[in-house]
Amino acid sequence: MSNLCKVGENWVLSRAKLQGLIDALTGSGYQVIAPTVRDQAIVYDRIFNERELPVGFTDEQDGGKYRLKRRSDESVFGFAVGPTSWKRFLHPPIFKLWGAAKTDVGIAFKPNTDPVPKYAFLGVRACELQAIGVQDRVFMTPPFIDSVYAQRRELALIVALNCSMSGGTCFCASMNTGPKVSSGYDLALTELLGGGAHNFLLHVGSEKGAQIASQLELEPATATHTNAADAVVAHTASTMGRQLDISGVKELLASNLEHPRWDAVAARCESCANCTMVCPTCFCTTVEDVTDLAGQNTEHQRRWDSCFTSDFSHVHGGSVRQSTKSRYRQWLTHKLSTWHDQFGTSGCVGCGRCITWCPVGIDLTEEVRAIREEPKAEAKA
Predict the structure, then answer these.
(1) pLDDT of residue 291
(2) What is the DSSP string of 85-118?
(3) Contact, 35 vs 54, CB < 8 A?
(4) What is the structure's pLDDT at 378?
(5) Which of 139, 78, 59 is nearest to 352 (CA)?
(6) Is the confidence at residue 320, as pLDDT, over 80?
């Protein structure tokens, strides 16, 4: 039955009615972006039907390792995060800023007039919700507001997900960013399996979410449902694949810029930039002009870039960071130390993607631990 839902209420959505949520979002004008299986990985893409979700799939993750495998049940969200993040929809990897074309009388400039997409993100985990919050600070703090990001963000609706399992490289519990969502969502789901039932506890987080929930066939949640949801999150928090001691980490890294560990990790690092491409908070970009083969049209594009590329810090006279050591040090110290100075928070949310998708399995939790266990504090002038 449909109900008039209010902010703060808990309801039960049965697994059989999950398609109703997708239909309600689509019917409200949203493009539903959700997890789906493609190229032997779970990625985020547009879906129209609940059959496109990764039902019955899970993943195995470790340093430099990612494998899909079948579960013994029909869990819809029984996996950890994959290689893509919601960042690619709010802060696109390639975005046309403007174009230009030759005409009989000269050059005609063409602004980008593409409509702003209206996204509904289905299955946003706590660490990823925190990452979106980090990027909100980066892109939407006056006076420097990124209009591309801001317009997409303001239209987006978020259906968050309390994690029912952690991956081998997850450490959100260490970063205080999960596995339970806390704020910043419109609706939140917790998948409940057991006792012959398959349901979702649905929590209404905003008026926008309440409007969607009121279109669904829901049942009132009981204490049994909420207690079961709490138990799911508690179990996930106790089974993290990694841990990171963040006490004093800002000062620890800032005072160990010449630690020998930087040379050790540089000997392994490929400077491939995988870690920054999969990171949900990295935001560096460059701009390029792309022309057609006839030379009649051009586009001025903004593209993702990385501090791991030698050209990223290139100025007149050469690159500021010529060595792999300096580039890795810049990335890690920015993420865990100087990000606090810029944005008042850590740049890491503990999703573990950078560990999983590093081809040589470099693990930032291990790097920080090594420096902490044998600090080489720099002499003060």
Answers:
(1) 93
(2) -THHHHS-SEEEEEEEEEETTEEEEEE--PPPP-
(3) yes
(4) 57
(5) 59
(6) no
Q: How far apart are CA 166 and CA 181, in angstroms?
A: 14
Report, as an integer, the average pLDDT of 286-311. Answer: 92
CA-CA distance, 131 to 354, in Å (whole number)?
14
Backbone angles phi, psi at 377, to 5 degrees: -55, 135
Distance (Å) of CA 324 to CA 57, 116, 378: 37, 38, 21
Contact 160, 187 (CB under 8 A): yes
Q: Where are the alpha helices (DSSP H) in the chain?
A: 18-27, 87-90, 126-140, 147-155, 172-175, 207-213, 223-237, 249-254, 261-266, 274-278, 324-333, 339-343, 353-356, 364-373
Q: Token digits for 312?
A: 């990223």
Tokens 């939407």, residue?
140
Which amino acid type is present at position 363? D
Write out the DSSP string of 184-219. S-SEEEEEEEETTEEEEEEEE-SHHHHHHHTTSB-E
In angstroms, rounded to a whole number, what is the distance separating the alpha carbons of residues 327 and 56?
Answer: 40
- CA nearest to 252, candidates 373, 82, 165: 373
